[in-house]
# Entry
Amino acid sequence: MVATMKKVATEDVNATFEDQQKINRFAWNTSRITELKEEIDTKKKQLQNIDACKDIMLADDNCLVIPYQIGDVFISHSQEERQEMLEEAKKNFHEEIDTLESRVEALKK
# Structure
């Protein structure tokens, strides 16, 4: 039995060019799906941070100026401006997450 298993393992497997192309496409799609899922997780964490910022703002109504971080810079805005910026950022994150999820679904097909 061991001899037959060794014989099967040493036989050459012929793969056509089309088969190799399918294998390559599958590997690329699997890798891309993993990357997109990681990016979706990152966006969801950033979205949770925005929700936490909104909660902080609601809890601290008497503070007129709270810095808002854009990249590496903190900018001070009024509460209304901050609220608008957070809503816009939240909307953008939802759109980006939806786009990424649709790309994942398209790759799975």
User: Anything to note?
Assistant: Helices lie at 2-10, 17-59, 79-108. The radius of gyration is 25 Å.
